[in-house]
Write a structure and sequence with these properties.
mainly alpha, Growth Hormone, Chain: A, 3 domains, two-stranded antiparallel ribbon, 18 helices, 77% helix, 1% strand
């Protein structure tokens, strides 16, 4: 809209006429036009600088000078990817390395030791509710930094443990910290900082997180072998502190507007002509009571129940089927390895194909994998299973994160995702137990795997019934 000063300039120009011809002075009009253009340019620059400056003042400083053109969301994403590798590797995957040396040293049964890990999963699910609400209100910076600090201290306490009850209490605390440092708050940050590039950001984050087991299981095994399990835990605690606390504390920010930006790096200039999507915003209470959330929770609870049950019982089934222990262990390891291409294949497709169709494909692929495992009792059948099931296994977690953001928006993402995480955690805990009970009832793994395939198809059907998100509105 033309400002009053610009209108005044044009009016004065129109009144300035040539004394002989009565025509408007060309020189006067030219000066007025130049003045108007310069005024508009100054206004645009001042508007941008003012907004960015205000954002910097709110944040307590500008973006790093060495990254003047890189959207800060990508910096945060890489920082979160780095910390996810370390957090998952040390607080989740490395646990299995310590079961045997602890049992040998302390005389505890393996069941008693792994029971602490189950308690940690339960505590993680319960704490996710509080963490999600905090992230919605305050952002991920403080809660992830505090989680890293507390987790490092608890690891040191673990290295000194010699009583089973204390061991369980320590791992209950570690479980609570994992709710603060694992995927849920990181996904909330991605949902807040990215809209157009959300699928790409989730692909990068989960791909990096998938490297955790590849790096930290061998590292933990080497430390235990050369220095003993107590010293190994202390070293891992130091690594966790050094590699996660500084990125969480120094690099994480609550939202793009704190830096004068919009999601995906768009600059909030009033004169911008590009269209940008405006996402839906659904409160946590409304979302949890909705039909779409019920189907969403049903689909992913069933899927995670199947995935955990199958991964836990895969090696016993292969041994029962006559395969060697080495082959069974290799097959189980390759399932995790195939998760990497699964994330690269399915997650980016969510930006081109409706998310529920992608999710249906993921669950259906896993059902087909289980059918192949049962009906083709050869190495070929196991290979088909490993490829298909592993690809689906890797795509489930980012699909869940993207689904919540698309259905309900980023504003209350943490609270909604926290409730879903609690339900999924309960399903993960029930999966192995349920499969074990069914094995005893049916006296074999074949009917159990057929049942898992049926549950995977039920998950696909539930995913299909999830109401698609409202079409993104466009604001000019």
């Amino acid at each position: 809209m033309m400002e009053w000063a610009e209108w005044h300039l044009l009016t004065d120009a129109s009144r300035t006429t040539d004394a002989e011809s009565g025509a408007v002075s060309a020189d006067t009009v030219r000066r007025a036009s130049v003045t108007i253009a310069a005024t508009a340019m100054v206004k645009r620059v001042a508007n941008r600088a003012g907004k960015e400056g205000a954002g910097d003042r709110r944040q307590g400083g500008a973006r790093p000078a060495w990254l003047p053109r890189l959207y800060y969301g990508w910096v945060m994403l890489l920082a979160l990817g780095w910390t996810q590798i370390t957090s998952w590797g040390i607080l989740y995957y490395a646990f299995s390395v310590f079961v045997t040396p602890m049992a040998d040293d302390l005389g505890w049964s393996r069941a008693a030791i792994t029971g602490a890990f189950s308690v940690a999963l339960l505590c993680s699910g319960l704490t996710a509710l509080l963490v999600g609400r905090w992230v919605d209100q305050q952002g991920p910076r403080l809660v992830m930094s505090a989680g890293s600090c507390l987790a490092a201290l608890l690891l040191v306490a673990w290295s000194r443990v010699d009583q089973l009850l204390l061991f369980y209490l320590i791992w209950a605390g570690i479980g609570a910290t994992t709710a603060a440092v694992f995927y849920e708050p990181a996904f909330a940050a991605v949902a807040t900082w990215f809209v157009r590039y959300r699928s790409r950001a989730l692909t990068i984050l989960t791909f990096l997180g998938g490297l955790a087991s590849v790096i930290y299981i061998p590292l933990a095994a080497w430390l235990v072998r050369d220095y003993g399990w107590r010293t190994a835990i202390v070293v891992l605690a130091m690594l966790l502190a050094v590699l996660t606390i500084p990125p969480h504390l120094l690099l994480l920010r609550r939202r793009p507007s704190d830096l004068g930006l919009l999601p995906d790096g768009e600059v909030p200039v009033a004169e911008a002509e590009a269209e940008r999507p405006v996402e839906v915003s659904v409160s946590a209470r409304e979302a949890i009571r909705s039909r779409s959330f019920r189907w969403l929770a049903t689909a992913f609870c069933l899927a995670f129940l199947v995935n955990v049950a199958v991964t836990v019982h895969l090696i016993p089934y292969l041994l029962e089927a006559g395969f060697s222990a080495g082959f069974a262990a290799s097959a189980a390891g390759l399932v995790g390895l195939m998760a990497m291409p699964g994330r690269l294949i399915f997650t980016p497709l969510g930006g081109r194909i409706p998310r529920r169709y992608i999710t249906v494909m993921i669950f259906a692929v896993q059902a087909v994998a289980l059918v192949a495992l049962v009906t083709i009792p050869t190495r070929l059948g196991v290979g088909i299973f490993v490829a298909l099931f592993g690809v689906g296994f890797g795509a489930i977690t980012p699909a869940r994160a993207a689904f919540v953001a698309e259905l309900y928006g980023p504003q209350h993402y943490g609270s909604i995702s926290g409730v879903l995480a609690l339900l999924v955690t309960l399903a993960r805990a029930l999966g192995p137990v349920t499969a074990g009970l069914l094995y005893g009832v049916w006296s074999g793994y074949v009917p159990v795997l057929w049942a898992c395939a049926g549950v995977a198809l039920a998950a696909a059907a539930a995913a299909y019934l999830i109401e698609p998100p409202a079409r993104s509105r466009l604001a000019v």
